[in-house]
Each structure stands twice: as structure tokens, then as C-alpha cells.
Amino acid sequence: MGTNRKLLLGSAISVFVRLVGGLSAFLLSLFLARYLGATESGVFFFALSLVMVLSVSARIGTDLTVLRFTSIQFGNGDVVGTLDTLRRCLILAGTASTFVAVALYFVSGTIETYTELSSNLSETLRAMSPGLIGLSMLSLIAMGLQGMRKIVFSVFVLNIALNAFVILGVAVRNAASPVTVGYIFSIGTMLTAALGWYLLPAATSRVEPEVDSNERLEASNLEIGNQQILNSCIPLWGVDVLSQLSRWSAQLISGFWIASNELSQLATAQRTALLIGFILAAVNTVLAPKFASFFHSGQSDQLARLSKKSCQLLALISLPLFLAMMIFPSQIMGLFGSDFRGGAGALQILAIAQFVNVCTGSVGYLLSMTGHERDLRRATLIGSVVAIVVSLILIPRLGLIGAAIATAIASILQNLLLTVSVKQRLGFWLVSP
């Protein structure tokens, strides 16, 4: 098989696996909503959002650090150095995650006191606190696998295996409470992390140095130690946390003002709307290296053409799903159960935000791959601040709809800012013909 055919096949497999990962996340939400009902699933989804944000915070920016350094070392054929870098980051993030998990365990009762959720919240948070550690570990291992060019392994560990473990565990245990699901989640994160670790030898079994890579020189002259890792990850820490807050702050803030059944409607509506954007996440795997290649080789015309064509194609592919959510929101939310139909309006609002996200294309990757990370950080900061401020203003007044509006405004604003940055830095509009 020729090189081009191999690349095409690899890209197609990567896109397919990422789409399966996105579908598995939706199926998990659907499964839990129908198993637990609106009230109890709202408790679990709130706890899950909090654990996800805390896990990102505890990883202190090591995700992209692992991806960067393991990519350089693996491309240089340095398997020992690759695994050593991953090990150092796992120790660093694992230690921080343990402290955060212990803190969450002991403050869970206080969190419950200030929310409008049921008395199961504190027990659910305690059940999920070990899962915070497991989630951090499996996320870093997945980043390491991606750095080793094992995209299928990476996506399987990060997006598919945990969802499958939780669905299987809930079905076998016939779990009927968020507390039980919380324990299953924690066990699932540990099993997924162990599976990822087991896959590492297979990922490093065949290593061919990429002798034509410029990064190879950097790897050969750089002994990556703890200080280099800290110097890399600390600047990324804030961006990671802000990015999570921009996405999930409305759900977290909603827990302090709206009932758990409305919170579950918001959570399922948001996760359903994300289906529109999964095609973008899948295609980014293929587009990101091409953006970097065109930019650094001075092929600005090809860069602009690829960016615009991808935007048009993504919008066309996502349009049927977007229209379905706009025309049949009540029926779609009814898939989760009759108690979820009240989230139809929220689904429409969030679907609009996701469709705008798709129509603006891979703006984040486009800026980061062309050396304009500062613009990406600025837009992320503005988006997260807007999400928090607007949520605090609208949720007490409008409840569920206010949370959806706040999330949509922050997402649309962030993508528009990034689109303007692309025009300023690279000289073209992504949405133009």
C-alpha cells in the first residue's frame, strides 16, 4: 500500500473512531437518563461536570505537555525518553489529583448544602472522588498515545472505554441511584487507565525515527526533566481550566439555583447538542497537521483554501442534525424520557451555538498550529469570563433557559473572536466563499 493510501486510510480510521467516541458519550447520557430518571440523573451529571473540571485543574496543564514532548521524543525514536516523560507527568498530575480528590471527599457535604440538588449529592461526590484520580491518569495516558501517533488507541482510552465500562457496570448492577453510578464511574476510570497503560508496549513496539522532522534536533539536545515539564505545563494550566469553565460553568452554577430535574434537562440537552460538533472534533485530527505543514512551508493559498473548504463541508454535513434539533427538539429530548421534554428550548439554543462552532471551522487548531496561541488564550479567557458572568445574571432569573443562553453566548462569542483573529493573523475569512 502506497504512502498516500496509508495516510488516507489512517485519517479515515481516526475520524471514524472519534465519531464513535462522540456517539458513546451521547449513549451514556441517554442510558443514565433513562435508568436514573430526571431527578437522580441531574445529581450525577452535576457531580460529573464538577469532577471533570477539577480533574483538568489537577492535571496542571500536563495534557499538552505530554502531547508535545512525547511527540518530539517518539518522532526521534526515543522510546525510553517518551515513557519517562509520560511517567513524570503521571506522577506530577497524580499527586495533585490525589490532593484534590481528598479535598473533594471532605467538602462534598458543604457543596451539597449550598445547592438545590438532592441529599444524594454529597454521597455521589464522595463515590466519584477516586474517579478524579483515574480520570487524570487515563487522560494523560491517552495524550501520550496520541503523541506516539496511536490515534485509535488514544481515542479508545479517552472517549470510548470509560463510557462502555460505565454503561456495562450500570446494566449489570441494575444501578438505580447516582451514588452507585458514582462508584461504577470511579472503578471504570481505574480500569480504563490500566487498559491504557497495558496498551503502551504495543504503541512503542515499532518505532521508526522521523529523520526529516525538525523536532528531532530538539529532542536530541534536550533532556526532559521535571523543570522542563513544569516550565511547559504551568502556562497551559490556566487555559485548560478556563476552557472547561467556558463549557461547563453554566451547569455547575445551575446546581445552586435550579432543581435537579431541570439540571438533568440542561445536561442532556448540552450533551445532545455536542453531537453537532463531534464531526468538527473528528476532522481536526486530520486537519491540524496539514495546517501546520502549509503554514510553515509558506503555502498560504493552500492553507486558506483548505480552511474554507473544510468549513463549508463541515457545515453541510452538520446541517441535517442541526435542523432536526431545531424542528423536533421535544421528540429528541423525549428519547431520554418524558420528564426531559422540558429541555427542548435549551436544546434549540445550544444547537445554534454548536452549529456556529462548526460553521466557523477549526479556528482554535488553525491558530495554535500557526503559532498564534496568544490569540487562542485571549479568546478562551474572554469566553470563560462571559460564561460565568452571564450565568450568574441569567440563571437566577430564567433558570434552565438562562443557563442555555449563557453557554450559547459564551461559545458563539469565543468562536467569533477566534474567527476575527484568523483574519488579522492569517489574512482570510473562514466563512467567505
Give the number of domains: 2
Distance between the termini: 36 Å
Instruction: Write down the Rg.
Output: 21 Å
List low-confidence stretches: 210-221
The structural class is mainly alpha
> So what's the oligomer here?
single chain
Record field, number of beta strands? 0
Measured by DSSP, the beta-strand proportion falls in: under 5%
Helix content: over 70%
Largest sheet: none
Query: Counting H and I runs of at least 4 residues, what is the number of helices?
Result: 15
Describe the structure.
This protein has helices spanning 3-58, 62-75, 79-113, 120-147, 151-173, 178-203, 215-221, 226-254, 260-296, 300-327, 329-334, 344-359, 363-369, 373-398, 400-426. It is mostly helical and 433 residues long. It is globular and about 55 Å long. The two termini are 36 Å apart.
